[in-house]
C-alpha cells in the first residue's frame, strides 16, 4: 500500500469519454471530461442526475473503464495501476455498503481485514472511528437497527479504515434528513481540514456543493461546463438575478419580448413558464419590469430578485435552470448506470 501521494494533483483527468450501448441506442455519458484535484481539498462534482458524475467516479475508482482519455489517482494510472489505486482510495457509493446483519464493529473490522490489516490493528482502528463519528454506543448493535444517518456514517467510516489518501463520496447524503445531512457535512469538512484527506464529492444538491466544496466542477450532459471556487463562480455574475413567473404560460413569449426591450435587463432566458434574467440593480429595476409587464396586460404569478447563486451559475453556463435539468434527468436503471 502506498504511504504517500506522489507529487502533483491527487486526481488528474484529461479527455475522459465513456459511451454506454444497448440494442436500440447509445448514451454518451462522458464527453471529454477534464478535472484536477489538489491534495487536501474537497472538490465538488455538481450536476443533475445523468450528468456524468457517477460514471466519472466509477472510472476513477477502477469500477469501470473509459473509452478514451487518461486519469490518475494518488499518482497512479487507473487503467494500468488499478491495484495501487484501490489501496490508495476510500469509496462510498450511492447505495449502502455495510452488512445489515453485522454489528458496526464487525463491519469495520471486516473492511480493514480486506485491506490486509491485522486483527488487532483493525479493532483499534474500528474503535477510533466509532468514537470519531459518535457511534461508540451503537458499535455492538446490528447495523440494520441503526438510523439512516448512523448507517451512512458507518459507510464513510468503513471507507477510512485503511487510511486512504483520496476519498470518493458518491452522493453521500441522498435520502438523509436535514439534521443527519448537516452532521455528515461537518465530518466531511473535518476530514479535509484536520486530516488533509483529498475528497471528491458528487452531489446534485446546490446547497451541499456550496457549503462543502473548496472547488467545483459543474457538469452537464457528460461535459464540464465551468470550474472554480463557489465564491469565484458566483462573483463572476454581476448584478442580481430576477425570475418572473407568468400566470398564463401562453404569455411567456410576449413577456419575453417586453423584457428584452428593457435596457437594464440582460441574459434573458426562458425556463417553462418562468423568465430569468440578470439585472444591474434588482431593487431599482424590479418596478420597471412590473410596470412594463402591466402595461402589456401580462399577469404575474410571482416575481423574485436574489443575489447570484450556484443555480444562476448553472443557468449561465448550462443554459437551463438546475431544477429543470434535474426534472428532465433519466430515472431508474438509466440514472444509476447507463447515463449516471
Quaternary state of the chains: single chain
Q: What's the CATH superfamily of the largest domain, by name? A: P-loop containing nucleotide triphosphate hydrolases
At the fold tier of CATH, the topology name of the largest domain is: Rossmann fold
The main pleated sheet reads as: 6 strands, mixed
Report the order of strands and helices. EEEHEEHEHHHEHEHEEHEHEEHEHHH
How many helices? The count is 13
Which whole number gives the mean pLDDT? 90
Question: Which second-level CATH architecture of the largest domain applies?
Answer: 3-Layer(aba) Sandwich
CATH class of the largest domain: Alpha Beta
The domain tally reads 2
Structure description:
This protein is of the alpha/beta class and 340 residues long. It has two domains: 11-233, 3-Layer(aba) Sandwich (Rossmann fold); 238-307, YebC, transcriptional regulation domain (Alpha-Beta Plaits), CATH 3.30.70.980. Helix content is 37%, strand content 26%. It is built from 13 helices and 14 strands. It has a six-stranded mixed β-sheet with strand order 6-7-8-3-9-10, with helices on both faces. A four-stranded antiparallel β-sheet has the order 2-1-4-5, with helices on one face. It has a four-stranded antiparallel β-sheet with strand order 12-13-11-14, covered by helices on one side. A hairpin with a 2-residue loop joins strand 9 and strand 10 (223-228).
